[in-house]
Amino acid sequence: MTSSQDRQKALYEQIHDDYSRNLYDERSMEYRDRFIHEPMFAGLDLDGRRLGELMCGDGPATEFAKRRWPSVRCQGYDISPRACAAYTERTGFPAHSFDIITAPLPTSAFDVIAIVGGLHHVVGDLDPVIRNIHQALAPGGILTMMEPNRDYVLESVRRLWYRFDKYFDETAEAALSYPDLRARFHAMFDERRVDYRGGPAYFLVLMNMVFRIPGSWKGAYSPALMQLERVWTKMPTPYSKAFFVAQWAKR
């Protein structure tokens, strides 16, 4: 395990309960399903398929897939043993405490690999991570991901926040520019779709913990912000969106 992964593991073991309480509550899951999971899995049929959720946390993408496709077969992978235990308890599927940078995933083991906000935790090691994912996908398999958008208009504020907030490891985490990511790995994957999303509800409903907003407050303002988010999603420029969702097919 690398020193950056040691730090990440220690950090997420420490803050897991805060994350679980704030990022997987009913309002947050409503946001995830509508604005993250729906576009992540759009056009896919996972019935009878093998899904691996990497950097899985408590397994929100797996939960969505399980509801949508009852016969899907899932496994989770996360560097935090506490997250793995929560994943299994929440989804009923097995999870593995795993360093994706240095340990190989099983070869051709998955038809779909899903990552929700995980690649930006391994920005210094993207090449081995993406190679690991590529070999773990079956021929024609799909990588579907959601990651923070580095081209977002408020990216400088986000970088400053990463530097001073205890919930982030500024030395290992950074948002990703989708055009750069696509160009870097185009030889390994074909792009199926990409979508930019993330407005006020992303920060105040899903990420309320970062702003120290009590979860109990979300019920009061969430419905209005969710309506606003629908409008925000239709804005044409990626610079006004906090994250991107993409599907890639293995070459």
CATH architecture, by name, is 3-Layer(aba) Sandwich
Summarize the amount of helix as a percent range. 40-55%
**Tally the helices: what do you get?**
9
CATH topology: Rossmann fold
Mean pLDDT: 90
Number of structural units classed as domains: 1
For the largest beta-sheet, the strand count, sense and barrel status come to:
7 strands, mixed
Termini, distance in Å? Answer: 29 Å
**What would the principal axes of the Cα set say about the shape?**
globular
- The unreliable regions are none
* CATH top level class name: Alpha Beta
Written as H for each helix and E for each strand, in order along the chain, the element string is HHEHEHEEHEHHEHHE
How much of the sequence is in beta strands?
15-25%
What is the CATH superfamily label?
Answer: Vaccinia Virus protein VP39
Strand order across the biggest sheet?
Answer: 3-2-1-4-5-7-6
Strand pairing plus helix content: what structural class?
A: alpha/beta
DSSP strand count: 7
| Rg | 17 Å
